């Protein structure tokens, strides 16, 4: 890509200082506005990644920024040994949008998964006093990079060098209930999966699978844990993706768009699980649920309602899906399109890295999921015009690479 020597110099410096855990695209983003990003050279990009499903309201939402600034001028941090107003308000709001009963605020998605795992183990421990309970997770899942979250992540490549994980984890296939049944024992304490698999390739759970897992969990008092970190917060057209299935999880996790860029997550549970799991001394966090993070959550939820974000996801998300279907028809190198609302994947029969780089060149930011899928997780306030603009650049980029 063409770039100034200044930008190149910064990238070189970054490569000398940062631990090399990412193969980064060759760009330094300096600011954002709406659904656009600007690099150091002033080049403008249409952003269909939104920081990986994070910046749902677009960049520089004035009301959001003002709320954060106001909170900074009051207090940024206290401690979970005291109450604070934004946390009380955020807890109320997140209960409303999720229908869950108890919340614990974390600093990230992975940390929310850790809490969910601990909740399940404690719940089972209180029943029989033993510590050999098992958790069933899914192949191709992604739950984060900390040891517990990694242990339930169904990508052996991510886990390999870091084994042993937390132990007693078994894997089944999403949407294959028989494969779940094959792993169930009287030691199973939880079944965890993403309502729509993100990293693993944008695979929505089927209604049938959801219903059957729910029934199994009810019959055997197993906790159903849904990871809504990527697919939640309105991305599929309902506040949480599971809400379209007519079931309810026992425990769920949320993060990414929850704070729209302020690092925050949460795990939530029903009253029953809350009453029979973690108690004082079992779990904690220094930062989790601090006033700044919770002020962000409160404003995000308020703005979702005020700006009718869910309606926009339904309308423009449908449109996005249809337009992507056109591309799947048009190009032999595309196999199919998968997804719900504004969580879409275009599945190629080849690696997509060079298509994404071409699109970047032309001012469009996209991201992959695995090697052969382009993932679309834009801000939830995009319009049909943005979709059309994206389509034009993407079509050209695919044409140049696939012919
Ligand atoms: C991103 C993600 C995580 C991990 O969240 P972090 O904030 O990066 O720790 C967990 N689960 C899913 C489904 C995710 O998409």
Description:
- With 403 residues, the chain is of the alpha/beta class.
- The chain folds into two domains: 5-57 and 308-402, Aspartate Aminotransferase, domain 1 (Alpha-Beta Complex), CATH 3.90.1150.10; 63-306, Aspartate Aminotransferase, domain 2 (3-Layer(aba) Sandwich).
- The chain is 40% helix and 18% strand.
- It is built from 14 helices and 17 strands.
- The strands form four sheets. It has a seven-stranded mixed β-sheet with strand order 4-12-11-10-7-5-6, with helices on both faces. The protein has a four-stranded mixed β-sheet with strand order 1-2-3-15. It has a four-stranded antiparallel β-sheet with strand order 13-14-17-16, covered by helices on one side.
- The chain starts with a helix and ends with a helix.
- The model has no long low-confidence stretch (mean pLDDT 97).
- Residues 108-110, 113, 142-144, 194, 198, 227, 229-230, 255-256 line the site of pyridoxal-5'-phosphate.
Remind me, CATH topology of the largest domain?
Answer: Aspartate Aminotransferase, domain 2
Could you name the ranges where pLDDT drops below 50 across 5 or more consecutive residues? none
Bound molecules: pyridoxal-5'-phosphate
* Sheet with most strands: strand arrangement: 4-12-11-10-7-5-6
Mean pLDDT across all residues, rounded? 97
Work out the number of β strands: 17
State the helical fraction: 40-55%
N- to C-terminal distance: 21 Å
Biggest sheet layout? 7 strands, mixed
Based on helices, strands and strand pairing, what is the structural class? alpha/beta
Approximately how much beta-strand content do the residues carry? 15-25%
User: How many domains is the backbone divided into?
Assistant: 2
């Amino acid at each position: 890509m063409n770039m100034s020597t200044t930008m190149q110099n910064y990238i070189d410096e970054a490569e000398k200082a940062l631990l090399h855990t990412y193969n980064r695209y060759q760009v330094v983003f300096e600011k954002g506005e709406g659904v656009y990003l600007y690099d150091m050279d002033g080049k403008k990009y249409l952003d269909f990644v939104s920081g990986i499903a994070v910046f749902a309201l677009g960049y520089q939402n004035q009301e959001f920024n003002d709320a954060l600034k106001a909170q900074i001028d009051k207090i940024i941090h206290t401690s979970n040994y005291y109450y604070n107003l934004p946390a009380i308000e955020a807890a109320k709001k997140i209960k409303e949008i999720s229908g869950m009963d108890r919340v614990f605020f974390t600093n990230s998605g992975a940390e929310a998964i850790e809490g969910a795992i601990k909740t399940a183990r404690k719940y089972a421990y209180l029943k029989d006093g033993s510590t050999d309970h098992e958790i069933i997770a899914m192949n191709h899942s992604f739950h984060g990079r900390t040891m517990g979250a990694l242990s339930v992540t169904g990508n052996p490549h991510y886990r390999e060098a870091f084994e042993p994980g937390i132990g007693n984890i078994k894997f089944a296939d999403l949407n294959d209930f028989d494969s779940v049944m094959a792993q169930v024992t009287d030691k199973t304490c939880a079944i965890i999966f993403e309502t729509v698999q993100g990293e693993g390739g944008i695979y929505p759970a089927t209604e049938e699978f959801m219903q059957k897992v729910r029934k199994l969990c009810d019959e055997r008092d197993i906790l159903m844990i849904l990871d809504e970190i990527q697919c939640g917060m309105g991305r599929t057209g309902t506040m949480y993706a599971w809400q379209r299935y007519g079931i309810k999880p026992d425990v769920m996790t949320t993060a990414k768009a929850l704070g729209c860029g302020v690092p925050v997550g949460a795990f939530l549970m029903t009253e029953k699980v809350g009453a029979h799991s973690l108690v004082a001394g079992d779990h904690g966090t220094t930062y989790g649920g601090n006033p700044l993070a919770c002020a962000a959550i409160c404003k995000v939820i308020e703005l979702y309602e005020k700006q009718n974000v869910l309606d926009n996801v339904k309308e423009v998300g449908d449109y996005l899906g249809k337009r992507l279907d056109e591309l799947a028809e048009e190009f032999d190198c595309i196999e199919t399109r998968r997804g719900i609302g504004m969580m879409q994947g275009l599945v190629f029969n080849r690696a997509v890295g060079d298509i994404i780089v071409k699109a970047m060149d032309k001012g469009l930011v996209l991201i992959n999921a695995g090697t052969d899928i382009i993932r679309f997780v834009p801000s939830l306030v995009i319009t049909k015009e943005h979709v059309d603009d994206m389509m034009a650049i993407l079509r050209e980029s695919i044409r140049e690479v696939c012919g």
